[in-house]
Amino acid sequence: MILVTGGTGFLGSYLLRALVKAGKPVRALYRSRIPAQVQDVADKIEWVQGDVLDVVSLEEAFTGVSEVYHCAAVVSFQPDTRDAMMKINIEGTANVVNMAIDAGIRKLVHVSSVAALGRAKQNDHLSEKSTWEESNNNSQYAVSKHLSEMEIWRGVAEGLNAVIVNPSIILGSGFWHDGSGMLLKNAWKEFPYYTEGVNGFVDVEDVVEAMIRLMESPVSAERFILNGDNWPYRQLFNEMARHLGKKPPHIAAKPWMAAIVWRIEKIRGMITGKRPLLTRETARTAQLKVYYNNGKILEALPGFRFRPLADTIGEISRNFLSEQQQSAS
Question: NAD-dependent epimerase/dehydratase domain: which residues (predicted)?
Fold first, then answer.
């Protein structure tokens, strides 16, 4: 039996579908509801209600399990979610590690993030050998993922067979209102601003394939960057706008402009109660130029290749347009 935490999220839903397609026996945690994105395979999955902070539900979920994919995490750059994010990402991972050790599972694949590598300097070229450095460029999300990795390494020291994956920004269809889906929606709304920042991006199906292949491999006590390519944000939005038939961004957002906007957004949020579109953390990270090396995973998995980002953007744009047409009809 394979257990997936975070199976109702973006990456987890794609992983569940791939495991079901491969004929694997799958069990998944859900907190309150099973999302529409996995309804087509929901009847082929054994569902356990609970979460990674509920030790009793975790005990039930781990019964008879031999492999675990730990995808559950909070991804947020909003100041008011910091405490919950820290608790779920760190304490939740500690609970999963403890249960995995007690249950004597065969292997655990933990989903971290390239953010856990740190972003101490501009124009950084980061690899798995990069060491964490305290910096104002590190978001609280990055801190939480770094500390959650420490729980995995603690488990490895106690005998746990585990592998860590560090995806860059994951692109895929669905979940348009959260995470990377918002990037496409910004292009759809013809958001006029772009930054000079550079970041890594990767197709969600590539992340899933790498995770499954690592689970099935003899590799242990290693971490792997999963990054298709490093693109400037402007190039990303231009490509999205082209596929969506929208006007690309044309105003360079300088750091001083972003500093004004996030402050205005903060005040607007206090007045309206709505989440700010831009925060201090997102304004800062959008200006950084960070490059990720994907050579290690390509060497570890013979024949594995990342899908070109232009192809990924083309596909998700077509899927988005199709959903827009369906909802309008």
Answer: 2-221
